[in-house]
Automatic annotation (TrEMBL):
Name this protein carries in UniProt: NitT/TauT family transport system substrate-binding protein
Alphabetically ordered keywords of this record: Signal
Source organism superkingdom: Bacteria
PANTHER family noted in UniProt: ABC TRANSPORTER SUBSTRATE-BINDING PROTEIN, ALIPHATIC SULFONATES-BINDING PROTEIN-RELATED
Source organism of the structure: Xanthobacter agilis
UniProt KW Flavoprotein keyword: no
Origin organism lineage: Bacteria, Pseudomonadati, Pseudomonadota, Alphaproteobacteria, Hyphomicrobiales
């Protein structure tokens, strides 16, 4: 059941998600102001975190600002309107190299896939030659760059030239795929899961692409990004949040009453119109939970950054060539 507390965890604005059971005279817990995508998977985690009692009782409160898109969330963070934002590792690393004081806490290893209709003639990577291929994002999307590198290495083809490529927003490409206007589409994992629930299948998962370069599983390229000053000033608060996040993911990955309560709280913000879609999104979220120790996670990310630097160069990464020191939050070592 979605309680008032779990509802507040996803409503954003000035809502505090940590109205705990403390008495009226008790000191309010420290507040973490976060910008999250309105229906992004972090919103699922935070709704479950609140419903399972990890907020408030965990020693912190949450003030969530819901953003319509990534750019809006990043602008709020850069303007100081929030303490942290759910964003991309490469974006955070580039800002760090350019002198911004911030830290990164991994959230999800979830990657996308090339999806095709059931019964498609496309069965191997080589079959994409001549196919109408939709690609989420633009020419410098990291998944597209990695897929091209993998196609050259594994199949000897230049996908950018061999396929009929159309770039676009994931919802549009998913719709075009369903309508038969595309033969295949490279989609982010949540959109891939949604069309898979309708009977579409994976031609190749980005997990397998990354594994082809000796990195398995992929590192978490999405995480919580915090201002460095906040992380130092509120180190205990951030540690409590990180512990609550890890505990919530463990609960959601498990079984039994706690897992079901967490997913029941998350479902209203998952935009899952049916049980098949909900089940596909649930599986995808669990598959994307980071499992590596912090140092191994950083090493995997550094290796992936090398590959992306070779593919996208300065146009993609600006001055970024290696992961900057101090990017990963040091407190994660104790989790």
């Amino acid at each position: 059941m979605l309680t008032r507390r779990s509802l507040l965890a996803v409503t954003g604005g000035a809502a505090l998600a940590a109205l705990s059971s403390r008495g009226a005279g008790a000191l309010a817990p420290p507040v973490i102001r976060l910008s999250i995508l309105q229906f992004g998977s972090a919103a699922w985690e935070l709704a479950a975190m609140s419903a399972l009692g990890r907020v408030g009782a965990g020693g912190f409160a949450l003030e969530l600002r819901r953003a319509a898109n990534n750019d809006a969330g990043r602008l709020a963070f850069l303007a100081g309107a929030v303490d942290g934002v759910v964003s991309d590792l490469l974006w955070a690393a580039r800002l760090k190299v350019e002198g911004r004081d911030l830290v990164y806490l991994p959230f999800s290893c979830g990657e996308g896939a090339v999806v095709v209709p059931a019964g498609s003639r496309l069965r191997r990577l080589e079959d994409l030659a001549g196919a109408r291929l939709g690609v989420a994002g633009g020419p410098l999307d990291k998944s597209w760059l990695l897929l091209q590198a993998h196609a050259r290495k594994a199949a000897g083809i230049d996908l950018a030239q061999a396929a009929k490529v159309a770039f676009g927003a994931p919802p549009l490409l998913a719709a075009k795929l369903e309508q038969g206007e595309l033969d295949a589409a490279l989609l982010y994992w949540t959109f891939a899961a949604r069309v898979e629930a309708k009977g579409f299948t994976r031609l190749i998962a980005m997990d397998d692409v990354v594994a082809g370069f000796g990195i398995a599983p992929p590192p978490a390229l999405v995480g919580y990004v915090f201002e460095g000053a906040f992380a130092r000033r509120q180190s205990e608060t951030l540690a409590a949040f990180a512990k609550a996040a890890a505990s919530t993911r463990a609960a959601l990955a498990g079984s039994g009453a706690e897992a079901e309560a967490g997913w029941a709280a998350a479902r209203p913000v998952m935009q899952a119109p049916d049980d098949a879609t909900f089940a596909a999104l649930r599986r995808g979220f669990i598959a994307g939970i980071p499992q590596r120790p912090p140092e191994a996670e950083r090493a995997a990310a550094a290796r992936l950054l090398e590959l992306l630097a070779a593919e996208g160069g300065a146009t993609l990464l600006g001055p970024l060539r290696t992961l900057p020191e101090g990017l990963y939050w040091a407190g994660a070592r104790g989790l």
